[in-house]
Amino acid sequence: MGSQYTGLDLPIRVSHTHESKPPAADLYRYWRSHKEEGYLERHWPDELDHDAWAGSIRKVLGRRFPEFADAEIRYFAKGTFNRLYSLTNPRWDKSYIFRVSIPVEPFFKTESEIATMEYVRRHTSMSIPRVIAFSSSDDNELGYEWILMEMMPGEPLRKLWAAMPDTARVKLFAELAAHVQQLVALRFSKFGNLYFADVADRVLPPQAPLSAITCNGTDASMDRDIGPGGSFVLGRIVAQDFFFDKRIYYPGSRGPFSTTRELVDMRVELLSQRIRNLAPVEGEAWYCENDRELDRNKDRVYELFEQLKALVPRLVPPDNGPEDAGVLWHDDLSEHNLLVDPVTFKLTAVVDWESVSIVPAYETYDARPAWLSDRDWRPTPLVQLARGIPPNDEFLVADKLRRVGEMGPARLAYHGIVGPLYDTSSPETQQRVKDKQGVAKHLEIASFQHRPCNRNPAADQNHAADKYHATANSQTDNGEEKGSTANT
User: Fold this and answer.
1) pLDDT digits over 198-213, tens only?
2) DSSP strand E in 309-456: where?
3) Which residues are CB-neighbours of 391 under 8 A, at least 6 positions away?
4) What is the per-residue pLDDT across 396-445, written as a single tens digit (0 to 9) for each?
5) What is the count of structural domains for the chain?
6) pTM of the model
7) How far apart, in whole angstroms, are the C-alpha atoms of residue 422 and residue 387?
8) Residue 482 lies in a domain
9) What is the mean pLDDT of residues 452-467?
10) Nearest partner of 228 among 203, 198, 188, judged by Cα
11) Which domain holds residue 353?
12) Residue 478 lies in a domain
């Protein structure tokens, strides 16, 4: 199993692209209040027996791919948006992952993820999972969208980092940097997400002009393979600040956006609708503790939001600058999503390509991987402050100092290869970048999303975020880890 897919036109879409349905009214079932920190977390509402899931997966695959009829199908892991099952057979030369996704952004998240992975495969040397087939519709026995992909070798970096010598760490990130350099060298004329060209009518704005899908300019690196004659289009954005919790229902543009100002204005508009659509009563749809606390202080919240909104026109100009170059950026190059050979410490795969968008270059912080970053992504959760738990500033400062020493050589190696993404010599450009990154950070903090701060992997191996990613080449029946990591 595996070799028969060589040379086939992959990935294979098994769903019908002409079907168009609005988001279901009951998506609140897939969200619940985090018990400790109060934000809305993603949630699987059913407790379906894994044997029943395996049977449904066998039916789904059996019609189109009879070679999977005798596969051993076992529960593998549960991710942030996904539930995963492994497909193995001792006669096969490959193993596979079958991933089922809850409907946080129906159709668009799956379609964009598959197209993005294929685009990266065609235009870079980065090792990523090969997708065999997918369904961007929930019209099947499972009732969910799904992806069938190859299982990738290697262990997650979080498991190996503590045991890696400094020289191996530096070599690993130099290797990653060579791949990222290829990725960020691809430039785009708009901000949004990639899709296959055959779904252009679904992912572009209604009555979109020809300019919405054509290449702007003559630079060979701009909008490569996009538009008429190309395999891809640049369409609607799929990002958490556009679909997280109730945002999927809010009216407004999802792009593609021609300027950073258009993109930021829409983020602000969605945040405006969100803070005026709280669910503070326990038991009602979309309830979370953060909403309850915000509702108690809503007058002050609205006042602060209006101050932030008034700053945007002053800090984000209407026209793009060099820092606004469109780049395809995997914003979670983290210790979970970088897979490494446990013997050679070489990079074996980069996984988790869902919601990977084309964004302004300044938002990537010079294409800095999350694992090398010292950004303070998460303030103390609102509900913990309400409970009298002090801010975690002291921890974040201490952790940043620790990471400066621990990550320093790897950072130098990485940035020495990737280099700056745009010309920063102009004082005006430097000031615009500071202003725009300041706005982005405030919107990120106010976005109602859980943002994990950096942790010491050796001291925090059991952190709950580990459960959000597929682990092991094989697992016990109850899902305990036994081996290396595959794909989220």
Assistant:
1) 999 999 998 665 555 5
2) 326-329, 338-340, 347-350, 357-360
3) 379, 380, 385
4) 778 777 877 888 899 999 999 999 999 999 999 999 999 999 999 888 76
5) 1
6) 0.88
7) 44
8) no
9) 36
10) 198
11) 3-468
12) no
